[in-house]
Amino acid sequence: MSQIKSPKATVIWILVFLFPPTIGLGLVYYSAVQGLTMGFTNWNMISSPKWIGFKNFGQIWNDYRFWASVSNTLVIVLVTVPAQIGLGLLAAVLVHRTKGKTSTILRFVYFYPTTCSVVALGLMWLFIYDAGGLLNQGLEFVGLESVRWLGYGNALLSVCILIIWTGFGYISLIYVAGLAAIPEQYYEAAHLDGANSWQQFFNITLPMLTPTTFFLIIVTTIGAMQTFGQVYIINGRADSTLTIVQYIYEKAFTQFNMGYAAALSWILISFILILTVIQVRLQRYWVSYDI
Amino acid sequence: MTSKLIQSATHMPPDSNQTVRKFSLGDITANTILVVLFVVIVVPFIWSAIASFQTPLDFVSGKGFLPSEWTLTNYEKVFTDIPMTRMIFNGLFIAGTASIGGVFASAIAAFCLAKVSFKGRALYLSIVILTMMIPPAVLLIPFYTIMYALSLIDTPWALILPHLTGSAFAIFFLRQHMLTIPHELHDAAIMDGCSIASIFFRIYLPLVKGPMSVLIIINFMLHWNDLLGPLIYLNSVEQMTPTAGLSFFRGQFATEYPVLLAGSLVCIVPTTIVFLLFNRQIRHGLLITGLK
């Protein structure tokens, strides 16, 4: 490929063109190093940071709120990732069968919550979960007892429902594209061999979608590990919905315990990294890139 | 070509087969599930919309689906008791400037890295791409301290400036698009003595308008919906965006919940308009970029 040649005129332009990203690179790399070292200091933004070695990590180990946030975050991951992907796949397979206007409307509506502000959706769902809200009115209508959706034991599950409700449309959008990429001939061949729809689904559709599923599991897990907006709004009593990111936010920006919060982000990143590595390692057992 | 022939040849039997058993049990189940999912998505919006027209009295009594009296008081309160006009302006300013400015800066850098040869170009590109591996959570606190040092806390610039440098992903994404554009286009321009800047603005910018607008639209929605950033950087009510503002006023209006519902619906209006206008580009953009 030939390039623009006239060095004298271009050197200045190159500097001008690359000026914004170069500033950005400086910021990001400086911050990355600062973020890594800050975890080993004691800093409240007023006095200068003091190097305290692994003391933050020792404190975190004995911090019951930290363990509550870890357990809540893991519950969110374990519940919402499979549920979103399962529901998203179901919706995608069914939407894929529809045609014309119905198909357009369904795709639009299923995806719509993903485009909305988490705050707005959270406030809407707080109202729905309310003691006399939509869900309980519905339960009463069919003659069941009402549930305390935001009570201590239920709040985390209510958060999960909100996340699944918001997010499955995105999953289904990606799956619909994956389904469209499967060659029609495979189904025709299977049909001629006498395979029924279920056999076609389990022997063609599902294996052909495994690379998409793998991508979605990684992306949704990373997203769920960093759940913040939903729990910030729903905010269950006594840390019942406290997540890791919410705890970092609280430590850093309401208590200004920057060193401790930086150490917490270290731990969050390690968790995400470990989960991702495990998933990448496991993919060879179930993801098929060629059929 | 052959596959097309096979398709048209084999398409007849299954098609005619399907018309015979059009209303099988499977189809009924499938359509029921589609309708149930549709209702589950739509009802919370309709329910909140109806409740946002309720009088406080109706809301407290908590019975019945339709309000006994339709009122606009809640929406009036959203704009008088909460400075929502100001917040919407803040949100539009931050999301608009950050997304347009950021994508524009990325496009210029992408052009430089795709079409201008200079020493160290490959190295520069890899340093840019490497930043995508750094988790945002690690940058949260250091960025705050930088903005604090620059005394930009509680100004929209704390949220805008970090994005005006362009993003690694956008640079990489737009560079890929520019690489596919044949260089014959600018060869002639160089002959005519065009400057490198006018080559970018006259030749390449118009050719990457499509991918750029996809990035701008998606980034606009991400910035508008962002909660963590505004919560961290904006303290005073006059500076807040609708997302941060609504969560701020939540406590005050706990007993007047319909006001919060009205506010929530106001907050999703801009993204809904953008989504209605660019529905196709957004869905296509999410597929090709993998952004969420």
Short description:
The complex is a heterodimer of chains A (291) and B (292). With 291 residues, chain A is mostly helical. Chain A has helices spanning 7-17, 19-38, 55-61, 64-97, 100-111, 118-129, 134-141, 155-180, 184-192, 197-208, 210-225, 229-234, 244-253, 258-286; strands spanning 41-42, 50-51.
Task: Report what the structure shows.
The complex is a heterodimer of chains A (291) and B (292). Chain A contains 14 helices and 2 strands, in the order H-H-E-E-H-H-H-H-H-H-H-H-H-H-H-H. Chain A is mainly alpha-helical. A two-stranded antiparallel sheet of chain A has the order 1-2. Chain B has 2 domains: 24-70, no CATH class; 77-289, MetI-like fold (Orthogonal Bundle), CATH 1.10.3720.10. Chain B has 15 helices and no strands. Chain B has helices at 2-20, 25-51, 56-61, 73-80, 84-115, 121-130, 136-149, 157-164, 168-179, 184-191, 196-207, 209-225, 228-233, 242-249, 257-289. Chain B is globular. Chains A and B meet through helix 1, helix 2, helix 4, helix 5 and helix 6 of A and helix 1, helix 2, helix 5, helix 6 and helix 7 of B.
Q: Output mean pLDDT of chain B.
A: 83
The CATH topology annotation of the largest domain in chain B reads as MetI-like fold
State the order of secondary-structure elements of chain A, H for helix, E for strand.
Answer: HHEEHHHHHHHHHHHH
Note poorly predicted spans of chain A: none
* Structural class computed from helices and strand pairing of chain A: mainly alpha
| Number of beta strands of chain A | 2
Q: Span between N and C termini of chain A? A: 36 Å
- Choose one word for the global shape of chain B: globular
CATH superfamily of the largest domain in chain B, called what?
MetI-like
